[in-house]
Amino acid sequence: MVLLLVAGMGAIAGDSLTYAIGRLVGVRRLQATRLRPLARLLRWASRRLGPRAGMVILTARFIPFARLAVNLTAGSTGYAYQRFFPFSLAAGMVWAGYNVAMGYLAGQWFSAQPLLGMVLAIILAIGFGVLLDALSSRLRRRKPSP
Fold it and tell me: What pTM, to 2 d.p., does this model score?
């Protein structure tokens, strides 16, 4: 229970900090970034934050880098923190519960077989690396040469 609360509080604090950075930096400076992937993510988040902003904030918590873009955009576009916080709270606690449960289940499954757990972790890490490399190669092939 303590782990769940601490993980949830950390997630919510991170969301709030990212929101505050967006508020301080502002829309124009964020959109003027020279980092193309970040600029694309910010444009994506700007299009999504509207009448369904709450659902976007909840969903982005589970998508790497989308969370960053959505929280920065929410802060920079003046989306009210009083509206942002309840969605961040719900998303952070669900995310924390999910991760704590996954850790608990993995601990239960592999406590009697630590070697199996280690082998599976290595296989998953290698598979994830191969997947990222394939995606990176595909994106590089799609980019036009300067």
Answer: 0.71
